[in-house]
């Protein structure tokens, strides 16, 4: 997800679009893992993608 977000960021120049794209791609993976994530952990994962 981070690699794709970086490619989108470079190609389009929009960090916001890159972050939303990366988060949208990783969300189904997190749900399929079967692990219960708190809102704090989900926020940290989103921030890690955006970094």
Question: Approximately how much helix is present in the residues?
Answer: over 70%
* % residues in beta strands: under 5%
Total beta strands: 0
Rg estimate, integer Å: 11 Å
User: What would the average pLDDT be, to the nearest integer?
Assistant: 81
Number of helices: 3
Terminal Cα span: 12 Å
Describe this structure in words.
The chain has 51 residues and is mainly α. It has one domain. The N and C termini lie close together (12 Å). The protein has three helices and no strands. The longest helix has 18 residues.
Keywords:
single chain; 0% strand; mainly alpha; 51 residues
In short:
The protein is mainly α. The protein has three helices and no strands.
Tell me the layout of helices and strands.
Blueprint: H1 2-12, H2 15-32, H3 39-50
Helix pairs in contact: 1-2, 2-3
């Amino acid at each position: 997800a981070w690699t794709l977000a970086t490619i989108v960021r470079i190609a389009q120049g929009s960090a916001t679009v890159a972050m939303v794209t990366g988060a949208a791609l990783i969300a189904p993976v997190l749900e399929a893992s079967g692990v219960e994530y708190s809102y704090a952990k989900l926020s940290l994962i989103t921030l890690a993608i955006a970094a």
